[in-house]
Design a protein that fits this description.
Blueprint: E1 5-8, E2 13-15, E3 21-25, E4 32-39, E5 44-50, E6 57-61, H1 63-67, E7 81-84, E8 88-98, E9 101-102, E10 113-116, H2 129-135, E11 145-148, E12 155-159, E13 170-178, E14 187-188, E15 200-204, E16 220-229, E17 234-244, E18 253-258, E19 264-269, E20 273-288, E21 291-308, H3 314-319, E22 329-333, E23 336-342, E24 347-351, E25 356-365
Parallel strand pairs: 2-10, 11-17
Antiparallel strand pairs: 1-3, 3-6, 4-5, 4-8, 7-15, 8-9, 8-10, 12-15, 13-14, 13-16, 16-17, 18-19, 18-22, 20-21, 21-25, 22-23, 23-25, 24-25
């Protein structure tokens, strides 16, 4: 009987929006191989088939299979810190058939692997991103700082790469820097849930959102947020710096959108805001003995919005490229996240000659309504 063996398997943790390659070696060129993908409960979630090449190697790319099993997890507006089961656990098994009969005396199987939603650009797919996240103590964002309004909600996503069991005790902390040169004592954000390996936690860390404005009446300029393993007094994520701005905006709009690392970015639009409401209905003609009468059906309305972000750092405008890479974009409206549908005319950009970095956001709220209710109900 022939031996089938894995020669290339995925890393322990992969992003699903990049190739996830699998290769098996066989002794035949006239057989075919089934690759079965199992979830963590031993259920087959996909079966792929392929034939050996001239070198007796069978190749698969399971990225699409894995990508269908994971999603981005938006934060909760009702809770301070939320644990997200963002990683999909799976293992692989190979079977080889020739003339309809199983040829392998042993069926090769991999250890359990994990996958999360996200990825790198094609030019960077060979980069060890999870090594960088661990070494540089990154949150799930390419940013190391952000400029925010005091009343702007914001979340940082922390991916726990630590496989310690039981999970190490981790705590989110912050420190505020004031205009008079003083600082606050190190403060503790609400307790984090116990995160196992490859779990993620979304941490509410807007200035007023987290109650940072209540600790002092002084004028705050900036604050830092980080996560610490309190068992060994070591920072495991951060420090992430928030610079506070009091730029006036008559109609402030706050957004969040999924990014390519599996987290969410915050965005505030402080420029011109415009909105247009249009009817969305079908015109019908009802006939009678004297002629006909025009009427409508499926009477609904849709609102088109346009928001100018105002001046932003070039790096933030560049990160906004992810708005085009995912359909997970939300407007924060009071205590609700309103899903948005992007317009194809939405664009970001900058002119290097005048150092102006802005984005023009064109979108619709994803809800097409049959009824009207004010955005703010007093």
């Amino acid at each position: 009987m022939a031996e089938l063996a894995f020669t290339t398997v995925p890393a322990d943790l992969v992003y699903t929006r990049n190739p996830v390659e699998v290769e098996l070696a066989t002794e035949f060129t006239d057989s075919y191989v089934l690759l079965k993908v199992y979830d963590g409960y031993d259920n087959v979630v996909a079966t792929l088939d392929a034939y050996p090449n001239a070198s007796k190697v069978v190749s698969f790319d399971i990225a699409e299979v894995l990508d269908a099993k994971v999603s981005w997890h938006p934060p909760s507006l009702a809770e301070d810190n939320v644990l997200h089961d963002i990683a999909f656990g799976y293992y692989l098994q190979g079977e080889e058939y020739k003339n309809g009969s199983l040829e392998t005396s042993s069926i090769p199987q991999t250890s359990t692997k994990y996958a999360i939603k996200g990825g790198l650009s094609q030019e960077k797919t060979g980069y060890n991103i999870f090594g960088k996240i661990a070494t540089d103590k990154m949150f799930l964002t390419w940013a190391t700082h952000a400029t925010v309004r005091p009343d702007q909600p914001y979340w940082l996503y922390f991916l726990n790469l630590d496989g310690t069991e039981p999970p190490a005790n981790k705590q989110a902390k912050y420190k505020v820097y004031y205009a008079d040169g003083s600082t606050s004592p190190v403060q503790t954000l609400p307790a984090l849930a116990a995160a196992y390996q490859y779990d993620a936690i979304s941490i509410a860390c807007g200035f007023k959102q987290a109650g940072m404005d209540a600790i002092s009446a002084k004028t705050a300029l900036r604050y830092e947020v980080w996560i610490e393993n309190i068992d060994i007094a070591t920072i495991v994520a951060g420090k992430f710096t928030f610079y506070l701005t009091d730029i006036y905006c008559r109609y402030p709009v706050n957004f969040i959108y999924a990014n390519s690392l599996g987290g969410f970015e915050g965005l505030h639009a402080s420029g011109r805001i415009s909105q247009e409401t249009q009817g969305d209905f079908e015109e019908i003609e009802v006939f009678n003995s004297s002629g006909s009468q025009l009427s409508t059906a499926y009477d609904r309305h849709v609102r088109d919005w346009e928001a100018m972000t105002g001046s932003k750092e070039k790096e933030e405008i560049d990160r906004m490229t992810d708005i085009f890479n995912t359909n997970k974009m939300y407007e924060i409206l009071g205590t609700d996240l309103i899903p948005l549908a992007r317009d194809k005319k939405m664009k970001t950009g900058y002119a290097k000659d005048d150092n102006r970095f802005i984005a023009e956001l064109k979108y619709k709220r994803a809800y097409i309504n049959r009824n009207y209710t004010p955005d703010v109900i007093s």
